[in-house]
Structures are given as C-alpha cells and as structure tokens.
Amino acid sequence: MIIQSNQKKAIMVAIVASVFILAFANMGIAKSKLTKGTSKSVPSKTVAKATPKSIANGKKVYGKICMTCHAIDGGGTIGPNLTDKYWIHGNGDFNSIMNVILHGVPAKGMLPKGGLPLKQQDIVDLTHYVQSLQGTKPAKPKAAEGKLIK
Q1: Cα separation of 50 and 22, whole Å?
Q2: Is residue 78 helix, strand or coil?
Q3: How many CB atoms lie within 10 A of CB 134?
Q4: What are the contacts of 68-73 at 24+ separation with CB within 8 A?
Q5: Predicted TM-score of the model (pTM)
Q6: Model confidence pLDDT, tens digit, residues 113-147
Q7: How far apart are CA 28 and CA 11, in angstroms?
C-alpha cells in the first residue's frame, strides 16, 4: 500500500493530537477540584505531608527541570528567587506552588510540569521541595520580585 504525502501529514497530525490529549489527561485536570483561594485547579490527591523521602525526590525533580531558571539553591536566575518571602504567583503555599508547576507560566517560558510527563507524586514531591527552600540562604539570591507574603 502506498501512502500519499497528504495522508502522511494527516497521520502525523493525528499522532501529535493524540499525544497532547494523553498528556492533558495525565495531568488530571479533568478530574481535579478547585482549591480555596485559587482560580486554577490542582489534583485532589495533594494532602500528603512532606517527608525526608518526598523532599529528596522533589530535589531530584527540581534538578532536572527547575534549577536552570531558579538556580540549584533556589536563589533565582532567569526565574524568581524561591527562598524569600516574595511571590509573583500565589502566596507560597502548597496549592499555589503546585498550580504554577502544573500550569506553568507560559508568558515567561515556563512550561506546564516543566515540559515533562511527571507523575503526580513527583509533582507533589517537587512542591514539597520548593516549600523547603523558603527561608534558606542561597549563594547569590536574586532581588525580591512580587508581593511580600507574611
């Protein structure tokens, strides 16, 4: 069977569309709940408490997708400093951090889930790790951005 050029294009479009549909289904957005004080949704299984193991896994995920813009110690480079009390998106609580991870900040070049097919547990662990950076002292902290959260 010979496949024509326009048939190849149609097949490729169908494959790409399927990948995007699966990626969004994996994000769990369709089965999520709204969280208090936010306009975006996060998965309903976000109640786990931080443990040394979850923070260690979150640090690994951070090293793969976040450190380029936020620095290895969270002090910020292209992206904002994650160690201070100033927040551009949300208020630094679990749900607002998770929302930024899940939905990204496309206007600033931050892809949802860092552009990777992260598992829900990795997202939860990454959120815990980012929270653990708050109050630490990075080597070269970027100047404060956003609003002060007390």
Answers
A1: 29
A2: coil
A3: 15
A4: 69/109, 69/110, 71/138, 71/140, 71/142, 73/133, 73/136, 73/138, 73/139
A5: 0.70
A6: 999 999 999 999 999 999 999 999 999 999 999 99
A7: 26
